[in-house]
Each structure stands twice: as structure tokens, then as C-alpha cells.
Specification:
- By secondary structure, the protein is α/β, with parallel strands linked by helices.
- It has two domains: 211 residues, FAD/NAD(P)-binding domain, CATH 3.50.50; 194 residues, FAD/NAD(P)-binding domain, CATH 3.50.50.
- Helices cover 27% and strands 26% of the residues.
- The strands form seven sheets. Strands 1, 2, 3, 4, 5 and 20 form a six-stranded mixed β-sheet that branches. The chain has a five-stranded parallel β-sheet with strand order 7-16-8-9-12, covered by helices on one side.
- Strand 14 and strand 15 form a beta hairpin.
- Helix 1 packs parallel to helix 9 and helix 5 packs across helix 6.
């Protein structure tokens, strides 16, 4: 078995992992590192998901970071206090289908693999779905050969995936109905930034991108802070904006007035208001009801209404990939309590996810730089038992989304105070 010695290993070649690698190249150019990726493509979520309308929430411009790639699935990782290193075992797939075992000896271990299982969607019970004679599709496993033109489509759920799918499908489908059990907040965001054209006249592309990035981050930060600080105002503001864009006579209170405040669950954004524009078409609609049963030709609702369909799309979220680490606290959103020389990359939940991942990467690099400056060989976060007994216990992600709530017990914990917090 081959052994490779490196400074750092990053698990996951999605945007978070690639960005972490970029930060390492830029801020720690003398560190050696590699990225382990279990799939045969890079880009993570934005490479894997193929459904119509898919779009990234990232406002970052990525540099060329990955020079070569092979499918490498991590199988185990163990820390040696004597060696002050991690031993990581992985299966490396080569051309021709052969799989080789490989060992990595690394000083620092970073996890940027996200929180979804690629091979498994979040389980949802749809009564007797097997009775349906049409096609049942999950966006997570969308195939480019799926033909939805001219079909009657029902999208089950109302999250970001459904809000993205509806306008894309409505272009060629006979009809598209979004069936939701409860309402959601949807907010229209500008699709293009006019500053790009203006700034490019006065400065280089590099500087224009930097200015625009900071402008986007500042606007988003202020927007999120205001909505979180004034929830009643936020509800009224979002409801007013939705009424402006929805068709006249649309029952906004029934379909887009949820029980929760903005950011208690994910706030769905639709660039350029494409979701609201699509609802002006007579072939699209929103139904707020629960499923009684599935028939051969559609869905029977509790209210007695029937939705005829040729295709049902179950737009549920991915299944959580977290293991049982629910007893550990998170230090500054990056390090699990008691785990040495290791960090994980996650994004924001009350704002765009990916810029938050960049903040976490920078935080980890600060820790690594401090270790190198002081000559220390290891770092870990710890809470004194007396302090731990006084700390509040909250899940690291506090959104009320079903797939997150179901994983609360498996999530690491935060206290919401001091360094023991995520945001």
C-alpha cells in the first residue's frame, strides 16, 4: 500500500473544498495538500444536481486550483498523539476500474464534504405512490433524458428546489403545480448587478470583482441582520414584496404566509423574480393542502381536490450525512471539541451558504498559521466540565426545515455565546 506524507488533506471537492484549497495556496503557499473526492467530478452539489433551473448561490470567482483528479473515497481517519499526525486510509479508483488502497500521513485534516448523502434522498412518505401510473422523479437523481415537455407535473414540497424547478419546467410543460403542505417565504433577488458594467470602465476586472463581492456581502449582511432583528417588520416586508409580483387576486395569505418568521427556515430566493413571473401563466399554480392518497392518474388531497398528473416530482431535501457527533461542541463554527488538528467547513444558514464557507476556511487558516508561528504541533478546543455544565445546548444548525430537525440529535452542539457558536 502506497503512503503519501502531506501537511493537509481536504475531504470534498465541492465549492467549499476547492475554495479552502485556494485559500491554502494563497495564504500558506509552502504547505503541501491534496483533496480527496469520492465522486468522478468536481463541484460538489453544483456538479451533482442536474435538474432544470439549477443555479449556484455562490458569488465567488474561483481560481484554477485542481490540477488533476481521481476518485478517492476516504475509508478511515485516526489521530496519533505520538506522531502528532493523522493516518487516513482511502480507496483510489484508477482508469479501468481498479481500486487501490492508499495511506496518507497528514498534519491537518479538513472536512468539506457537505451535509447531504449523494446516494440517498431524504425519505418522505407519499401514500401508495407505487399506484401512480406516471413517472416519479427525485431532483437529486435527475437524468438528462427525462422528458417533461407537454406533461402535467406536480412538484411536491415548496423549498428552494421546488421554487427553482417551477419556472424552468413551466417553459415547456403542459402544466406545473407546486403542492405544499404549508406556505413558504419566497423573495425576489436582483438577477444582475449593474455595478459590474459601471466599475469595469474605471478599474481592472480583478478590482471590479473584489468591489462587487464586498458590496454583495455588505448588502446581504445588512439585509439578514435587519430581518432577524425585526421579525414582524420582516414578515410584512416580504409579504408586501410578494403581493407586488404575484398575479392579481392570488391568495397570498393562504399560499405564502407561513407560521414561522424569515430565516427560522431557509428563505427561498428567486433571481429576477422568475418564480413569480411563472405563476402569471395559466398553466402554473400553487396548492396548499395535504395528500390523502395517490391514484393512478394523480394525487387526491384531503380537501377532496384531485391533481391530475403525468409526472410527480418529490422535491425533498437530501438525507443528512452526519454521523453521531451530537455530544461535541463546535468552536467558532470550525472545530469539534476535543478533536485535534481538524476542522470542518460549513456555510451560513441565515444567508448565502458559500461565502460562509469561505469565512470558515479563513478561520482554520488563522489557526494553522498560529500553530506554525508558535512552533506548536497540535491544537484542539476543549470546554472545562464546570463551564460545560453552564452552557446552553443548541444544535449547530437551527433551521426548522424537516431534514435538519430530523438530524438534531446527530449534530454537534453550540452554546450561542463566546467561541461556542456558528454565526
Amino acid at each position: 500500500m502506497a503512503t503519501e506524507t502531506l501537511d493537509i488533506v481536504i475531504v470534498g471537492a465541492g465549492l467549499s473544498g476547492i475554495n479552502t484549497a485556494y485559500r491554502l495556496q494563497k495564504d500558506l503557499p509552502h504547505c503541501t495538500f491534496t483533496i480527496l473526492e469520492a465522486r468522478d467530478g468536481i463541484g460538489g452539489t453544483w456538479d451533482f444536481w442536474k435538474y432544470p433551473g439549477i443555479r449556484s448561490d455562490s458569488s465567488m470567482s474561483m481560481a484554477s486550483t485542481i490540477r488533476s483528479a481521481s476518485v478517492t473515497r476516504l475509508t478511515s481517519a485516526s489521530w496519533s498523539s505520538d506522531e502528532q499526525r493523522w493516518t487516513i486510509l482511502a480507496d483510489v479508483s484508477r482508469d479501468g476500474g481498479t481500486v487501490e488502497k492508499k495511506e496518507f500521513k497528514v498534519w491537518w485534516f479538513t472536512i468539506a464534504s457537505g451535509h447531504y448523502r449523494y446516494e440517498q434522498a431524504f425519505p418522505v412518505v407519499i401514500p401508495v405512490i407505487e399506484r401512480f401510473a406516471g413517472q416519479v422523479v427525485h431532483p437529486q437523481f435527475w437524468d438528462k433524458n427525462i422528458d417533461y415537455a407537454g406533461k402535467q407535473i406536480v412538484i411536491i414540497r415548496s423549498g428552494t428546489t421546488a421554487v427553482t424547478l417551477l419556472p424552468a419546467l413551466a417553459e415547456t410543460a403542459r402544466s406545473v403545480t407546486m403542492l405544499q403542505r404549508s406556505p413558504s417565504h419566497v423573495f425576489s433577488a436582483p438577477q444582475k448587478n449593474r455595478m459590474v458594467r459601471v466599475l469595469s470602465r474605471f478599474m481592472s476586472t480583478r478590482w471590479a470583482r473584489a468591489v462587487i463581492w464586498w458590496q454583495r456581502m455588505l448588502v446581504e449582511a445588512v439585509f439578514v441582520k435587519v430581518l432577524l432583528a425585526f421579525p414582524h417588520f420582516s414578515r410584512r416586508f416580504i409579504m408586501t414584496e410578494m403581493r407586488k409580483q404575484l398575479p392579481e387576486g392570488f391568495d397570498v395569505d393562504k399560499h405564502f404566509n407561513p407560521r414561522y418568521n424569515p430565516f427560522e427556515q431557509l428563505l427561498c430566493f428567486c433571481p429576477g423574480g422568475d418564480f413569480f413571473k411563472a405563476l402569471h401563466k395559466p398553466s402554473t399554480g400553487v396548492v396548499t393542502d395535504t395528500i390523502e392518497t395517490v391514484t393512478e392518474t394523480g394525487i387526491l388531497l384531503k380537501s377532496g381536490e384531485t391533481l391530475e398528473a403525468d409526472m410527480i416530482i418529490a422535491a425533498t431535501d437530501g438525507e443528512s450525512a452526519s454521523d453521531a457527533i451530537g455530544q461535541k461542541y463546535v468552536w467558532n463554527g470550525t472545530m469539534l471539541g476535543g478533536v485535534p488538528n481538524s476542522g470542518f467547513i460549513s456555510g451560513y444558514t441565515a444567508a448565502t451558504w458559500t461565502p460562509g464557507a469561505d469565512v470558515r476556511a479563513r478561520q482554520l487558516i488563522k489557526v494553522i498559521k498560529h500553530l506554525k508561528k508558535t512552533g506548536a504541533t497540535a491544537a484542539a478546543s476543549f470546554i472545562k466540565p464546570s463551564e460545560r455544565a453552564r452552557l446552553p445546548v443548541k444544535p449547530a444548525l437551527t433551521l426548522g426545515s424537516t431534514y435538519i430537525v430530523s438530524a438534531y440529535e446527530r449534530m454537534p452542539k453550540v452554546a450561542g455565546v463566546g467561541p461556542w457558536r456558528m454565526e
